Amino acid sequence: KKMALPVPTQPVEVQELAESFNALLQTVNDHAVQERQFTSNAAHELRTPIAAILTHVQLLKRRAAEHPEIVPQSITFIGEESLRMKQLVDSLLTLSRADRAVLTMAPTDLAAVVQDVVVTERLLIKQPLTFQGTATLVMGNAESIAQILTALIDNAAKYSPETAPITVQISTTPTAHQVVVKDQGMGISDAHKAHIFERFYRVDAARTPAIAGTGLGLAIVAQLVKANQGTITVSDNQPRGSQFILSFPRQQALSEKISE
Ligand code: ADP
């Protein structure tokens, strides 16, 4: 009879180490897949306008002499597609900068930032835009908070009828100061809510073919929010539309400062 050798059981630490190593590998792998996907999306998005521009350049070369009437139309088209490419490249650059951005944080009055953005946005959008809120200090970077709010208000306007009001409110919970942007537009279904902050994600481009966009706006917002150590969530507005809630942690020292 052979004697069975005792099987050494692995110490718990080794098992835990192996598990966290596997988890790490998985994360690195997921990240690599996402990066490949991102590069491929970006290339594809740029390829489309480039192809369209080339087609019109060819058309102009071959036909313009005989058919001068096509010239203005082709030039307009080339201009529009070039603009689309420029916006996309600008967004990609913003995204790559925001990734590494170390922002200068300072006590910032949310109300003052919102007020500035609202004044500018009123000139740019058709919908009535109202603001409610009093001076509220948070630790953050004013310029990038303005950028975040501009993007949220632009979206609210883009995805709402021209007469549907948009509101911006500052409110305070026991733990956070918040800026809430509400619209009464088409809203976002729960299945899509989880994805809209992803790069290049657009809810059903077929639903909104007339609305130009790259799907990068909210990805930039998410990065800027993170750089400001804030959080952002989206939920349904009542009775219709969406609301985006931008939150900053409350800090005792800042509350005292504002009441001085
Ligand atoms: P886009 O350039 O397509 O607007 P974003 O990253 O800003 O890209 O937004 C991603 C998607 O989220 C949009 O395509 C749109 O479908 C949806 N979305 C964003 N904001 C709103 C909103 N206020 N109401 C309805 N849908 C929205």
Could you give a quick summary of the protein structure above?
The chain is an alpha+beta fold and 260 residues long. 53% of the residues lie in helices and 15% in strands. It has helices at residues 12-63, 71-100, 110-124, 142-158, 190-193, 217-227, 252-259, and strands spanning 106-109, 129-132, 137-140, 166-172, 176-182, 231-236, 242-249.
Question: How are the secondary structure elements laid out?
Answer:
Blueprint lengths: L11 H52 L7 H30 L5 E4 H15 L4 E4 L4 E4 L1 H17 L7 E7 L3 E7 L7 H4 L23 H11 L3 E6 L5 E8 L2 H8 L1
Parallel strand pairs: 2-4
Antiparallel strand pairs: 1-3, 4-5, 5-7, 6-7
Helix pairs in contact: 1-2, 2-6, 3-4, 4-6
The structure holds adenosine-5'-diphosphate.
Keywords: Kinase, Membrane, Phosphoprotein, Transferase, Transmembrane, Transmembrane helix, Two-component regulatory system
Catalytic activity: ATP + protein L-histidine = ADP + protein N-phospho-L-histidine
EC number: 2.7.13.3
Distance N to C terminus? 87 Å
Note the total helix count: 7
Oligomeric state of shown chains: single chain
Average pLDDT for all residues:
90
- What share of residues are in beta strands? 15-25%
- Structural class determined from secondary elements: alpha+beta
Helical content (DSSP H or I, runs of 4+):
40-55%
Strand order of the largest sheet: 2-4-5-7-6
Structure summary, number of beta strands: 7
User: What is the overall silhouette?
Assistant: flat
Uncertain regions: pLDDT < 50 for 5+ in a row? none
Sheet with most strands: 5 strands, mixed
Listed once per kind, the bound small molecules are: adenosine-5'-diphosphate
User: What gyration radius follows from the Cα positions, in whole Å?
Assistant: 25 Å
Summarize the helix and strand pattern as letters.
HHEHEEHEEHHEEH
